[in-house]
Amino acid sequence: MGIDALSRLNFHRTMPKTLAYLKKKGAIEFYGYNKVGDNTFPNLSPILLGMKDTDLKKACWPHVRATFDNCPFIWDLFKSDGYYTAFGEDTSSLGTFNFEKVGFSRTPTDYYLHTFMHEAELYTGNNRDFNSYICMGNKYFYKVLLDYIENLTMSLRTSKLFGFFWEVTLSHDYLNYPMAMDENYEVFLKNLDDARYLDDTILIILSDHGIRWGDIRYTKQGRLEERLPLLHVLLPESFRVNYSLAYDNIKLNSNRLTTPFDLYATLIDLLHMDGISNDNLKLRSETPYGNERAISLFMPILSNRTCTTAGIDDHWCTCRRGRKIPIFSAEAYDAADNLLTLINQLLKGYYQCAHLMLEELIEVTEIISGTPYEKEVGWREFLVVIRTSPGGAVFEATLRQDGQTWSLAGTVSRLNLYGQQGHLWLGLWEVLVAAALQEQIKGIKDSNEILSDEMYTIRTNGCIISALQPLGSEVRQLVKFPKDLKPCPMSAVALLSNNRTHIWIKHENRQYYNISDAAFLKCCYKSFYRPLSVDDITSRDVDKRVKYNVCFNFTTSIIAAHEFVRVKCYAGSVEIYDQFFIFAPKKELSSEVPEIPKNKTAYNVLIMGIDGVSRLNFHRTMPNTFAFLEKKGGVELLGYNKVGDNSFPNLIPMLMGLSEQDLKSTCTPRKKSTFDNCPFIWEWFKEAGYYTALGEDSASLGTFNYGKFGFIGSPTDYYIHTFINEAEENVGVNKDFNSFLCMNDKYFYKVLLDYIENLATALRTSKLFAFFWEVTMTHDYLNYPMIMDEDYVKFLTRLDSVNYWNETILIFISDHGIRYGQIRSTNQGRLEERLPFAYILLPPDFKEKYKEAYRNLQLNSKRLSTPYDIHAMLSDLVNLDNIESDKIVLRSNTNEEHVKGNSLFIPIPLSRTCSSAHISDHWCSCQKSHKISTKSKLGKEVAKQLVQQLNDLVSDYEQCAKLKLAELIEVIEMEPNSFGYDSVTWREFMVMVKTIPGNGLFEGTLRVVDNEWLVAGSISRFNLYGNQSHCIQDTSLKLYCYCQ
């Protein structure tokens, strides 16, 4: 039974009645019980798992969004030994395995209270006192927990129970609140005692640490108390008699240095009581064990034990002596400055966090290193306490100075509460992120959130784009980690696994599929492919055609000799598992196209897209990926402006250099045309000797398949649409609005990332042009990119470790910002939708060989750019002779200002406007504006005209209802950029309306010339239409049609 944040001495002060009862019953108090980590999690992991929290990553918890289902909890061992098991806490939001973690997908114990506490907290939680709801309706949560424990013990009186219970709500934040619980804990113990329950129960009452903040933490005693939590062990009288040596040893150890690791070893002993018989303890004592990190409390702990041998970091060690350093001395300020530097290094890459500065040096104490039992050391250690600004955070850390090098000896503690300073959780937040969440979000007056140090993202003669903050006041409350996202089912216990060459059965996971005997399990390996023959080239499913080969059975493993594979597994004749596997064998290039000569300079060109992510949302939701690209010297295009509404009109310019409208006269004359005759950029690379690849993680939402007919032939050497379509149709699960997120037990985006990595590896000795696009996780939700951040960083880092980025040009890009949801109703969201992220990462030797091209790319990063410019740049990369420095200079002097696509290796003119860049006014981010009253005659006329335009768009479809104006939300008059024009004779308005039926939210830019109204660009819809337009197939008109 745990009580959160209660030191040994504060237990004496605040719960004297409970203490007295334990003493009366003969409980053993541990005077040297020392914590091993900062907060609850790193101090309970050693008790329940026998591991440090940092060890879990390798063992069972690979990332912060993983569940704990595969972790080897001590209760599993008790369950195997015939015990009932229980786990309960009096809070769900601050739960040990739920606070900024995702908990368990399966019920970890026989009795598990989290579901109950979550619902109670959600619906009846009240009296919130800083971090915790204290009450469930009219009853304290801690009292709910005590009553439950008592009832459970009575229900299981004839059985054996291993229970782990933790109180948080009343003790977590305040030094003196445990006083309010003292009487009820005493009554609880008396009730168990009166029922004779304590006669056959071992009771461990403990805490994780002392109070971690508040006034007491500024005192010497408070610092020591925080490191020495309470621990009492109450053993039944029968135990003391039957295991007298174990009892003697545990009393001896009450005055020795002990840790949570020792508790785990003690619990292991309680599983096998024979091991603590007097005779066996004597034998065990003769075996050297003094330097073990975990020592059972039933074994005598040696008096020469140190923090180092006990696994306690120097920062948490209570065995040290100290010598104060005068705070005005150079030595003290040197220590403080180094602590500040180390803290800011921890925050590096988190744009949200302000750079911290030293506000006050509170204390520097030199720790006298070593004990009489340790050898002399060559370094010095200092405990440093500082206050920083902005935010007034107070930090404490132990620094080690080894010559001129300073490092952290453990973690950094915060001594005051941080409230909402660190309110975003975007993945791997250090404990310090909470210290410093952008102080600059304070004091911003304008709704456009213009930055004080840089007023504009882009400022040229032809285009001015105001600079917005990633966490502007309009959007910051919308940025939350998507904790409700369902993980892929059984992801931690998949029945099959694979590498680049084999697929095998994970027999250790058979139990999760109710298979006890391996003899009953067999799997069927079926390869499949896209056949060359086509039955009907007019079929809508022409791009979905597939043919399967015969089945090969296996019972252990099988060689993966094909590109696309489906495996089904059976227990007897019952199908129990179905999964798809994709491989990347090196194929033979056509004999007509020779590979690039080894002595010719050429780089892989890899375009990796993430759907629906603005530049600022990339910063917000994928900070670790952003930090990697920044560290590697990637060039961010700050003025990259979309040219169309959704993915298709923004990717066609990139891949063909054409607008969507140009396709009809170029290569897709009819709505049912395929794209086989279109001039894709990969064809140029193919002719130049490159392998080519095209892949998306969704078939149903594929760029060339959603409402379109795709390809008859395979457009590239590696084309994975056939695979993704089969996987989506057969094992696609967790459909979240538009997308299947999972391919059975694996996220589709992870399937794509793994494939890219394998393909890059397989073609390492050749050159590759590849275009890959992620859709499933990001298409519909603002915050879902957070889920992918860590996996993208790992992907980039793995390829970096084999120097792949030294020979590859990476274009990391999106098509637009999020087009739906609450953010689109904000001014910032409107601008973000038009400014997707775009990063270009060049190899180091490219920057040296093509200095002028690289210099121009850096210059253009602050100019207005478009997908047409990406296409022009790709054209240059087909033949690098085009970007030799002398040719770049020549081309720069003859550059045509109004060309549709301007290679990013050639300077973009300062005079470039949206018009000259072929961006319609509706998508242009460069315009100034002023609001028009929604009650004015002009405002109402603009709204009326937009609704009329909407109805005109679907006038040929009788099944579509006539829309009516329900609400005029906003009207803005745009101030046209007149650069390059003698005069402007029109007026333009951006208008947002709600229509009925259907409650559609629409945004359009209307131009009025001589009383004639025209749509400037297309009309956006910024809420989801779902199944409202099921009666028509035209994807461009589905936005506007409400089926009657």
What report would you give on this structure?
The structure is a single chain. A 7-stranded mixed beta sheet has the order 27-36-35-26-34-29-30, with helices on both faces. Mean pLDDT is 89; it is low at 370-376 and 423-454. It is of the alpha+beta class. The protein has 5 domains: 2-239, Alkaline Phosphatase, subunit A (3-Layer(aba) Sandwich), CATH 3.40.720; 321-414, Nuclear Transport Factor 2, Chain: A (Roll), CATH 3.10.450; 496-534 and 542-582, no CATH class; 604-923, Alkaline Phosphatase, subunit A, CATH 3.40.720; 930-1043. Strand 19 and strand 20 (502-505) form a beta hairpin. Helix 2 (16-24) packs parallel to helix 8 and helix 22 (748-762) runs parallel beside helix 23. It is 27% helix and 21% strand. InterPro entries: Alkaline_phosphatase_core_sf, DUF229. It holds the Pfam family DUF229.
Produce the secondary structure layout.
Elements: E1 2-3, H1 8-14, H2 16-24, E2 28-29, H3 40-49, H4 56-59, H5 74-80, E3 84-89, E4 111-112, H6 114-124, E5 125-129, E6 132-136, E7 139-140, H7 141-155, E8 161-167, H8 182-194, E9 203-206, H9 220-227, E10 231-234, H10 237-242, H11 244-253, H12 260-271, H13 278-285, H14 307-310, E11 321-324, H15 330-346, E12 357-368, E13 380-389, E14 394-402, E15 405-408, E16 413-414, E17 456-459, E18 464-466, E19 496-498, E20 502-505, E21 521-529, E22 547-554, E23 557-559, E24 564-571, E25 574-582, E26 604-610, H16 615-621, H17 623-631, E27 635-636, E28 639-640, H18 647-656, H19 663-666, H20 681-687, E29 691-696, E30 718-719, H21 721-731, E31 732-736, E32 739-743, E33 746-747, H22 748-762, E34 768-774, H23 785-801, E35 808-813, H24 827-834, E36 838-841, H25 844-849, H26 851-860, E37 864-865, H27 867-878, H28 885-893, E38 928-932, H29 937-953, E39 964-975, E40 987-996, E41 1000-1009, E42 1012-1015, E43 1020-1021
Helix pairs in contact: 2-8, 3-12, 7-8, 17-23, 18-27, 22-23
